[in-house]
Amino acid sequence: MTRVFGAREGANQTARDGAKWPLSWEMRTREEKRYLHFAKRGNVLKCLQRNPDIVWRHEKRREQEILKALENGEDVSDRGSVILIISGMMHQLNLVGGTVWDLCDGSRTLDQIVDEMARDFDVEREILREDVEEFVDGLIERGWLTHV
Q: What architecture does CATH give domain 48-147?
């Protein structure tokens, strides 16, 4: 059996005898699912942009403290370096989330953001991409990011 990858949901799978039937979601590879997730929204090559209504600041001094603690082997997952103020509420993004937020300036796609982060973080690119994509999806659902 040979897979035929399509650019939309409902792509076909071709058997050796040439018969075709819809390829179920469970049978797709992770790469196909990821592509389809963005393709169905038309966002495969679109850049990510922060919501201009959100007031935010990147606290460089705090980031340096976090990086030093990280070098010392401390857990820094709950320490924030980017502060967002949304509808009167303050939200804090940790080092990784703040890096993603900072890179979502409207000039980079998801893959470009992952590429830049892969140079700075010691993690496998695929794992990084999954984490960044999940985080970005959450920000898009909240209306904090959009595709441009």
A: Orthogonal Bundle (1.10)
